[in-house]
Amino acid sequence: MADQSNILNEMNDRSREVFRRVVEGYLESGAPVGSRTLTRSLSEQVSAATVRNVMQDLEYLGLLGSPHISAGRVPTQLGLRMFVDGLLEVGDLTDEDRGKIDATLGGNSEDVTTMLDRIGSALSGVTHGASLVLVPKHEAPIKHIEFVSLSPDQALVVLVFGDGHVENRLFQPPPGQTPNSMREAANFLNALAAGKTLRTLRSVMETEIKARRQEIDSLARGLIESGLAIWENEGDRTERLIVRGRSHLLDTAPENDDLDRIRTLFDDLERKRDIAEFLELTEGGEGVRIFIGSENKLFSLSGSSLVVSPYMNADRKIVGAVGVIGPTRLNYGRIVPIVDYTAQLVGKLISDRG
């Protein structure tokens, strides 16, 4: 962030205005912005050639890109990040948007899940994006966890707490999961989670991630030293073990006890990383946060952005989150106050219900 801030501070007024107008034009239209278009809207009267030179400089800095040889420029992910952090002008929530969100509030007879479903639908409708609503975290000790596969891309997790509270949550499982692998995952988590709250379970998950990483390294070391296998993208989330001489990923390698064990550990490691990131998101601090493009690791959706804000209970503890997922060219100036208002509204409703 410091480097981005320095780049922005070192820009002259002309470069900063060209950069801002390119990003704003792209966010509005989704199309590349050309020098001639900018020349007509700049506060300073300059030639199209001068504007092109400025845009080339911004492209050299990695802030703009050219999708086609003869087209204008669009912001890169770095450019969008810098714009959002340093130049974004957040508007006020309009009465129309506020009214649409407020209109979904039901009576006191509604349970929390129904209420949040209605608010999530309203948030999606107002922003024309996909909404994210993470329900309040229950702080009682966990008694049992169960995963139920509903389809290849949808599953249900049932959380049973020691005080008798039960929560059912839909989620999208990591690719390749089967009912059997989900049962194994549930058995493993139950052995860890019994008597622990979700908050405590997060630190346990972090410990397990480290243990799995060490176990993979230990098992794979012999294969690598013997030249039978190599790492691909070592250290990345997408790292895999490739069997040398066969050019097959681990998932398509021949049957081998060590390879089967490593494959299981990789799947387990990835599942734990996903869960840990989800928990981290809800405990990441107050205020609206924006994840752009590949920063949006929670959903692994390239070309998407996530605008999210946690909400708090009466004790000022973060208990959940609401957000909007959409293309990187979201209207951030409008979406941010909508998400912020919705998070505050949900927090107040949760606090009023105790």
TrEMBL record:
Domain of life (superkingdom): Bacteria
Pfam family name, one: HrcA
UniProt KW Ion transport keyword: no
A GO MF term: DNA binding
Record flagged with keyword Metal-binding: no
Membrane spanning stretches: none
One BP term from GO: negative regulation of DNA-templated transcription
Keyword terms: Repressor, Stress response, Transcription, Transcription regulation
Domain Heat-inducible transcription repressor HrcA C-terminal: 115-336
Family note: Belongs to the HrcA family.
Function: Negative regulator of class I heat shock genes (grpE-dnaK-dnaJ and groELS operons). Prevents heat-shock induction of these operons.
Protein name per Swiss-Prot or TrEMBL: Heat-inducible transcription repressor HrcA
Source organism of the structure: Rhodophyticola porphyridii
Protein's gene: hrcA
